[in-house]
Amino acid sequence: MTEKPEISISVIVPFRNEAETLPRLFNSFKAQSHVAFEVILINDHSEDNCVRVLEDLLKDSPFPFQLHSLSNSFGKKAAIKKGIEFSTHDLILTTDADCYAGPNWLKGMSYPFNESSLQMLVGPVLLVGDSFWQKMQSIEFSSLIGTGGSFLRLKIPIMSNGANLAYRKNAFESVNGFDGIEGTPSGDDELLMNKVNKAFPNSIQFQKSSQAVVISEAMEGWASFKQQRLRWASKWKVGFRLSTMLSAIAVFLVQLIQVRLIIQLFTSVSNLELIASLLLLKLLIEYIFLWSVRRSFGQKMHGLAFLVNYLLYPFYAIYFGIAANFGKFHWKGRRYKTSTK
After folding, report:
1. pLDDT of 78 higher than 90
2. What pLDDT, on a 0 to 100 scale, did the predictor assign at position 1?
3. Is the pLDDT of residue 240 over 60?
4. What is the residue-averaged pLDDT of the chain?
5. Domains of the chain by range and CATH?
6. Interatomic CA distance for residues 262 and 91, integer angstroms
7. Is the pLDDT of residue 266 over 90?
């Protein structure tokens, strides 16, 4: 059987103040087994020396590249849009400057597009880190990847991640790119996915392959974690979609019920066996699900981190569900309103 030729890819990398992480991503590109690709790097008004770092790295680049800077616009969506305008290939793959990947990443994210009906491919993203706090985030993030992938298998796209997202340039142009979803600094992934799904029903898949994984460091402290989650939550009100809102409400209610059960476990004098049984049942279901997800992508299951996360997650999930409607958050040295519309 004749092997199909490689699909050419334009990899778009928006970056801002990523001098420390860009060398690691550059090394990932150098090690790729897939060779039919170009890298388009878009500088979003960086204030560190990352442009100089990139220029030094790219002097001996074994792959084609372009380096551009935003001038009259700013933000991740503007950077991706500019990158697509400069792209020379029909398949677009976006990633973040603080990520890295294995040698078969580009191959794993491109070969499914031999199927002509496929318009967008959601790739897996893993969080890593050595601290207990980072391991907790890694566990929690596995639930997002697993849930998003499971729903996509049911043809219900509710989650994606711009750190590992591939789509046809024609699909991006057909839905007018990010028009109508500019009201949040986030949303270059899920909000765009919603537009593509509306224009091309049943054309989005999840790439359940350990070779297609992109890796990123989990947040080191609560402050940065809080800002990250508020940024993610800021896109909920933009590009309203009933299925997304219903899933968010369902998650909120489930966590609220768990919080009540935990409180009752220590304050109630009746039904203790029933309360403990319900909490244990939920714990076992979540453990089996997360163990399966992490095993699929080569990650170990950290039992203690899982247990602590199981107990604490409902409290901060409720907090972010409420906080996302008020106040402001910081990202890449910029300040945004969480209630942006």
Report:
1. yes
2. 39
3. no
4. 90
5. 9-221 (3.90.550.10), 243-337 (no CATH)
6. 48
7. no
